[in-house]
Amino acid sequence: MVSIAMPRAPGTAGVLWAFIERQTNLWKRYWAWELVWLVYGAVNTLAVTFIARQVDSSGAAASIDVDRLVLFLLIGTLVWAYLSAVLDDISLVVQWERWEGTIEHTLMAPVRRSVHLAGMCVFGVLHAVVRTMLIFAIALAFFEVDLGQADWLAAATVLFVGSFAVAGLAVLAGVLPLLYPERGQQMSMMIQAFVLLVSGVYYEVDVLPAWLHPFAVISPATYILDGIRGAIIDGEGVAGVWREIAALAVFGALLLPASMATFAVAERWAKRTGRLKRQG
Amino acid sequence: MNQVPLQVNDVVKSFGGGWSASSVLPWRRNGASHGRRVVDHVSFEVRRGEIFGVIGANGSGKSTLIRIISTLLLADEGGVRVFGYDTVREATPVRALINRVSADPSFFRNMSAMENLLFFGRVYGLTAGDVKRRTPVILERLGLEWPRALEPMSHLSRGQQQKVAVARSFLTSPVLMLLDEPTTGLDPRSKRDVQSFVRDVQQSHDATILLTTHDMDEAELLCDRIAFLSGGRIVAGGSPLELRQMVADGRPLDSINMETVFMELTGRRVEDDEEPAEEGEEALIHG
Ligand SMILES: Nc1ncnc2c1ncn2[C@@H]1O[C@H](COP(=O)(O)OP(=O)(O)O)[C@@H](O)[C@H]1O
Ligand SMILES: [Mg+2]
Fold it and tell me: In chain A, which residues have their Cβ closer than 8 Å to the Cβ of B74?
């Protein structure tokens, strides 16, 4: 009798690629939705940024630097487009597959959960970068902004380091549908809305009531927005925004492993209680 | 690694009861057992190269058992070993050895069969080349024309989708295959295609198969040994011949069909659902 070979588990790079390739194929098949999100994101960016023009023409702006306001709002909407794309994509890790009916087949594959989640995160970030760049390009056609002083390296560094923290948040949000098959996705959208409120996307967080300030402090999005505005509006270099970068690095180092550990616990709980799938 | 493909050892599973926080700790194999018991002290062993059938009515606990073996559910009591690996503590090696076909095909519906298989092959360590080489061969043996594999899954009929599901699981050459009602709801033609493929693979490859069904003809056609599951418990087991002998009582064996054997050994008909109606639902169904 031939003896059974030791099972061979696929390599890390192969698994990462499996998820990235799958998400890319899905994205191609759902290109019409992609277009919808692009248009929606672009329109939202334009709509908010036009507020600055309104301030200008109303004459109320004698004491306001309107060009600065345009840039402030533009960065806010673009960063938010980026963050919500990352959050949307990654937090659907369970819910999407539950909807397709593939969740059990994916979870029984011989891959480490951390690599599975990492693959989803890498795709989510790349996808969000592409979409945000397109929105940015569209917005540039509508607004004359002076980007001469911008320090792009510092902005990119903030975004890169911040993406780990946001990915961690997104994985945490993605755990909810595992725990609450019925309401989980709604809950994760509420979290996203709250992050929008407290992180200073369209205003400085100082304008928030005092009781919301602590939430601004613990939201990684606050530091991403501060850092990128510092780099692009005020031309600060990496050294100038090191505080934001350091804070984001700490958030990432805490959130990403914590979110993966949480996912693992939630997965075991779902397997104990039969929440993964019932039919078939 | 030992050579027994599957050892199911005194497995118990209930749903709807409470659970304790410690039951989600990674080193805990078992957890609280309250609620409605759907798998009740089940034990059996599957031998190398055989097709082992688990026969039971709807709701008898077949899929729950398959999910426990597939690492998708955690048992309350007892344990399962696949080639000696514990399905809870050594889940990753177990997963690399098994694959599963469920009664509902479950694919990314807007992706093509090929795109789906590419993904499900890669996560088992296959390369794109492996998938592209093996898939047409398997699909052809299943009687699915190749061009259909490039259309979105949602354009395929239920029978065609199920053939892709069978292809997905055999693509990774699992040494233990779990087939959970692979032909339920299929048209007669697709059903025959799937059954003869399973027969072929078992005869020509070194695969061991656990098959659940409530179709007696299928069980007799495919299975070397059969266990009857009723109310979550294994009520009887043996080869089709042995099972007949259990109830023969002097009658000639070939005059007894398997439905009769099932009925006499379990006290129910395999066509009747065991599903307990939820509150209020009963009135709806019978009223
Ligand atoms: N995840 C689950 N949560 C709660 N009850 C479940 C779950 N899965 C199955 N059950 C119940 O357990 C019983 C056995 O189901 P199942 O194993 O699917 O039976 P079969 O596959 O034999 O039709 C059924 O009454 C079913 O409703
Ligand atoms: Mg079933």
Answer: 268, 271-272
**Side chain identity, residue B279:** E
Boundaries of domain holding A100:
14-273
Residues 157-176, chain A, touching B (beta carbon < 8 A): none
Measured in residues, chain A has a length of 280
Beta bridge partners of B37: B14
Compute the distance between CA of residue A67 and CA of residue A56 in angstroms, rounded to an integer: 9
In a domain, B168, yes or no: yes
Residue B68 is assigned to a structural domain of this protein: yes
Beta-carbon separation of B96 and A18 below 8 A: no
Q: Is A102 on the interface with B (CB under 8 A)?
A: yes
Ramachandran region, residue B107 (left: φ > 0; alpha: ψ -120 to 50; beta: rest): beta
> Counting ligands in written order, which one lies closest to the CA of residue B54?
1
Distance from CA of B141 to the nearest CA of A (A): 23
Q: What is the pTM of this model?
A: 0.92
Gap between the Cα atoms of A78 and A225, Å rounded: 10
Shortest Cα–Cα distance, A5 to chain B (Å): 9
* CATH number of the CATH domain containing B106: 3.40.50.300
Residue A116 lies in a domain: yes
**CB contacts, 8 Å: B118 with chain A:** 21-22, 25
pLDDT at B195 over 80: yes
- Nearest chain A residue to B74 by CA distance is A272
Q: What is the mean pLDDT of chain B?
A: 90
Among candidates A3, A14, A109 on the partner chain, residue whose Cβ is nearest the Cβ of B95: A109
Q: Is residue A280 part of a domain?
A: no
B1 located within any domain: no
pLDDT at residue A44, rounded to an integer:
93
Q: Sheet containing B85-86: which strands, arranged edge to edge?
A: B35-46, B6-16, B77-82, B85-86
B172 at A interface, C-beta within 8 A = no
ipTM value, please give it: 0.91
Domain count, chain A: 1
Which residues of chain B lie closer than 8 angstroms to A274, CB-CB?
15, 64, 73
What is the residue range of B85's domain? 6-286
Q: How far is A20 from chain B (nearest CA, A)?
A: 10
Q: Is residue B195 part of a domain?
A: yes
Q: What is the mean pLDDT of residues A226-255?
A: 97
Q: How far is residue B67's CA from residue B102's CA, in Å, rounded to a whole number?
A: 10
How many secondary structure helices (H) and strands (E) does chain B include? 10, 10
Q: Is there a domain that residue A3 lies in?
A: no
